[in-house]
Amino acid sequence: MTTSPPPWRATVLTLFPEMFPGPLGLSLAGRALATGLWALEARDIRASATDRHRSVDDTPAGGGPGMVLRADVLARAIDEAEAGVADRPRLLMSPRGRPLTQSRVRALAEGPGPLIVCGRFEGIDQRVIEARALEEVSIGDYVLSGGEIAAMALLDACVRLLPGVMGSLSSGEDESFSDGLLEYPQYTRPQEFEGRAIPAILLSGDHARVAAWRRQEAEALTRDRRPDLWAGRPATPKKPPKTTTDG
Ligand code: SAH
Fold first, then answer.
1. pTM here?
2. What digits encode the pLDDT tens for the residues 89-115?
3. Distance 192 CA to ligand 1 centre (A)
4. Are β-strands 38-44 and 8-14 bridged in parallel, bridged antiparallel, or unpaired?
5. Of 68-82, 103-117, 126-140, 168-182, where does mean pLDDT reach its minimum?
6. Which residue minimizes the CA distance to atom 13 of ligand 1?
7. Residue 150: CB within 6 Å of ligand 1?
8. Ligand 1 in contact with 114 (CB < 6 A)?
9. By alpha-carbon position, which residue is closest to atom 22 of ligand 1?
10. Residues sharing a CB contact under 8 Å with residue 186, sequence separation 6 or more, in sequence order
């Protein structure tokens, strides 16, 4: 008998562990969770508070509204979560972070699974970010009330890429961002909907022409909607010759 490798495992530190698995317990991610393709541990930051009132936050130094998560409590929560666990990415969901991308998602999915800290209130004490080398990750230029929904978004994006989670055909190779492009338009039955027909080429059975049409649509969409992606896409054609010069 061979021992299977440990599954991809995510640990989430939160003041609201009851939010998990939440939507990650349904559909694709939920089935994968139930069958052990990945594991999720939601830990209550408050369990690492030491005072009588189990306080986790305090007023901001220098004044101002709201409350800030304490460095000592959060550091203890991180250390307790990591006891006996091998090295893995330590993320802090934060609007100040580097915006999450599909390539970062892919890298995280290929690793052992991250530890994720969810902020609340005004955020967390800067010193624990530095002392525990937390990598700040944002899911977009808007402010949520807590890191939990952001963590779920990140986990959902990772889990669908884990081996065995998606059907073998939907490997993600054709998807938005995989080729630096947004995805082409999709159609299914009925053949006519409110006077709109499916583009005839998709019904032609000519796979090469279908592929060319999809490529052209994807490029047009990307140029139009995301000039930033269009400008930053790799200049090389789809399958560049293998080189040994990288790194
Ligand atoms: N005062 C902070 C915002 C705090 S919002 C600021 O201006 O930067 C409370 C928590 O929600 C944050 O600590 C973070 O964990 C989470 N959060 C809010 N917006 C987010 C975003 N766009 N991406 C990831 N996490 C976010």
1. 0.92
2. 999 999 999 999 999 999 999 999 999
3. 45
4. parallel
5. 168-182
6. 119
7. yes
8. no
9. 95
10. none
- For ligand 1, the distance from its centroid to the CA atom of residue 214, given in whole angstroms, is 37
Residue 91: the pLDDT is 98
Superfamily of domain 8-159: SPOUT methyltransferase, trefoil knot domain (3.40.1280.10)
Q: Is the CB of 122 under 6 A from ligand 1?
A: yes
CA dihedral angle for residue 17, residue 23, residue 24, residue 25, rounded to 10 degrees: 90
Q: Domain boundaries in the chain?
A: 8-159, 174-232
Dist. CA 189–CA 196, nearest whole Å: 11
How far, in Å, from the CA of 137 to the mean position of ligand 1? 10
Could you say which of 1.20.1290.10, 3.30.70.260, 1.10.1270.20, 3.30.379.10 is the CATH number of the domain covering 174-232? 1.10.1270.20
* Residue 221: φ, ψ to 5°: -60, -45
Q: Tell which one of 15, 16, 67, 93 to mutate to probe ligand 1, the residue whose CB is within 8 A of the most ligand atoms.
A: 93
d(CA 237, CA 247): 21
Q: Measure 59 CA to ligand 1 centroid, in angstroms.
A: 17
Closest CA to 12 of 135, 85, 113: 113
Distance CA 162, CA 29 (A): 10
